Records
---
Amino acid sequence: MRNLTTTPAWAALTKHASEQADITLNQRFTADADRFEKYQLSAPSWFLDYSKNHINDEIMSGLLALAESQKVSAKLASMFNGDVVNPTEGRAALHSALRYQGSDPIKVGGRDVMPDVRSVLKQMEAFAEKVRSGTWLGFSGKRITDVVNIGIGGSDLGPLMATEALKPFAHEALSLHFVSNVDGSHMVSTLKKVDPETTLFIVASKTFTTIETITNATTARDWFLDSKASDADVAKHFVALSTNAENVSAFGIDTDNMFEFWDWVGGRYSLWSAIGLPLMLSIGPDAFNRFLTGAADMDEHTKSAPLGSNMPVVLALLTVWYSNFKGACTHLIAPYDQYLHRFPAYLQQLTMESNGKSVHIDGSDITVSTGPVVWGEPGTNGQHAYFQLLHQGTHLIPADFIVAAESCNPCGNHHELLIANCLAQTEALMKGKSTDEVVSDMKAAGVAEAKIDELKTHRTFAGNRPTNTLLTQRLDAYALGALIAMYEHKVFVEAAIWDINPFDQWGVELGKQLATTIYDDMSEAVKAGVSVSSHDSSTNGLINRINGMRHKLA
Ligand code: F6P
C-alpha cells in the first residue's frame, strides 16, 4: 500500500484546501500586489503566468513538499538516466535521448544508445533531402509531391500535430497527408487527392502489428499496384518507421527503406524518433534539428531548475492540486493559435494514455483521482462554443491558455485581436461579474427595473476560474519542441506524485482483443447464415442486427 495520502504534505494541503476554500482569486489579487511577479516562470522559449490560480505561498510550499516526499527529482533523474521506469513492460523511457545535444553516452542496459540515435537521424536527413530536393523519384521518373503517413495513436497524432503547427515553415511543393482511422473513408478520401506516380507512403508503426495501420497500408499498397506500378516499384513509394524489422519485411517493404527506433521509445513519446520523418520532410532537417534542440533545452531546464521554478513541475503540481484537493476532473487546453489545432488531441493521448490509471506502480489500488480528462480547441473558436460552460457552468475547469506574441502570418490587426481575446478570457474567468455590477450596467443602459430583476442572475459571472497562460515569442520549431517536451515532463511529474507508471497502456488491449473476436464471429455467422450467441445479449443483439442490415440475415 502506498502512503501518498498519509504524508504530512497531503495533510497540510487538505487543511489549506478546506481553510482557504472561500478565498477568491479576486481577493488574492487584492491582497497581494506582487502576485504576477511572484507566480511566474521562465523556461526555454516559454513564459508562464500561473498567478491566476487558487494558490498562495503556503499552498505552493505544501505542493512542493508533496513533490519532495514523492521523490520527484529522483524519479526524473531515473528517467533521464535510462533506468527501467516502465516496469510493467520492462523498459526505459528515453525519449530525451532522441533529442540529446551533448556528447555524453546515454545508456540503456549498459549500452550507449546515442550512436544508433545519430545514425537514424542521419539516415532520415539524407532521405528527407532527396525527397525535398526532388532527387528521390517515383517509378515513372517524377518527383514526389505528396506524402501519406499511415499510422495511428503516437504514430499519427505527434507528427500530424507538429506538421500542422509548423505549417508556415513547410516545403511548398510537398503536401503531407495523414491517414489513421480504419474507417475506409479516411484512406479512400485521401487516395482521391493523390497520384500513385508522385506519392510516397510512410507506414508508421512501432509494433507493425496495429490492425488499423496494417489494414490502411495494405489498401494503399493495393491501390498503388493497381496503377502502372510493379512490385519492384514499391521500394520507391513505401517506407516504414518501426521497431519491428521482421514484420516490415513480411509486409513487403525492404528494410533498407526502414527507419528504425527502439522499444525504449514509447509510442506517444516517439515524435522525436523516426516517427518524426513526415515532420522532417515538411520542415526540413535544419528546422527539425531546431525542434529537437528546443526539446533538449526543456529537458535541461527540467533536470536542473529547482522544483519551485521548474515549469513542468509547477504545472503538474497545479494539476494535482485541482484534481485531488479541489475536485476538478478535466483540464482545458486552449491554444490561441490556429496552427495548434491538433495540439489538444495530441495532449489527450500524451496525458490520458499515460496517466489514466487506477493502480500504483506496485499494483496496489489508488485512492485518489489520477489524470484528468484533457480537451480543447483553438481560441477564439472555443469562445463561441463551450466557453459558456467555463464561465457560468457548475464545474471547476482549470485551463492552459497558450499564445505567441508574434504571428507567423502577420495580417492587419488579427493577431492583436487574438491576443486581446486570449487575455480577456483569462481575466473574465478570474474576475467574473458580480450581480451588483450587472445591475448597475443595466441601469446605466436604461433597462427597466423588472427586466433587471428578471435577468440579473442570468447575467452574473461568478468568476474565480483558474487559468495558466503560456506565452512565447513566435511558434517556431524550437518553441514547439520546448512546449511538447514541457508537457511530456509535466505528465511524468504528475505520475511521479501519484506513483503510477505513465509509460504503459494496458487499458487499450481489451478492446483490441474483443474487436478481433467480434470481427471473426460476425464473418463466421454470415458464412454459416446463423446468429451469434456467444456474447452478452446487447452485443449479440447488435451483431445480429448489423449482420441483418448488411447481409439480410435474420
Ligand atoms: O492503442 C495504443 C497504442 O499502442 C498507442 O500507445 C500507440 O501509440 C498506438 O497504439 C500505435 O501503435 P503502433 O505505433 O505500434 O502502431
---
Amino acid sequence: MRFLIINGPNLNLLGKREPDIYGKDGYEVLCQRLKAYAAAHASTAECFQTNHEGAIIDAIHAADGVYDAIVLNPGAYTHYSIAILDALKAVDVPCVEVHISNVHQREEFRHKSVTAPACVGQICGLGLYGYEAAMGYFLERT
Ligand code: DQA
C-alpha cells in the first residue's frame, strides 16, 4: 500500500515538545519508523509535516489517486478545522486520525475532534505506535 502520513502543527518539535506527553523520540525518528514499518509490509510511507492549515488541505487534495490511505494527525487543527474536515470528505482516500496523547485525559477542548467524522476511525493515547496501528488497520483490511 502507498501511505501518506500527514502531521500538522508543532509535530515537527516531537522529542523537544512536552516530552512527558509526546515522548522523547523526534519527528525524524517517527518517519524512519513508519517507513521501516511500511517496507516490512511491502508498502511505502511518505511523511509530510506542516504548520499550516492550507498545506494540509493541499496535501489531502493531492493524495487523491496517488495514495491508498492517509494517516493524519492534524494537531490542534483537529479541534476546529472545518476546512480539513471538508478536504477529507472531498477525496476518495480513506483516512485514520491519530493522536499521540490520550486527548480525553487532557483539557476539555481536546476532547472534540471536528475532523474525525470524515475518517474511518480515530486512535489516541498509544504514543507513536498509534501511527503503526493505523497503517496496520489498512494493511489488514485490504
Ligand atoms: C495531538 C493532540 C492535540 O490536542 C494537540 O493540539 C497536538 C497533538 C496529539 O497527537 O496528541 O498538537 O494531536
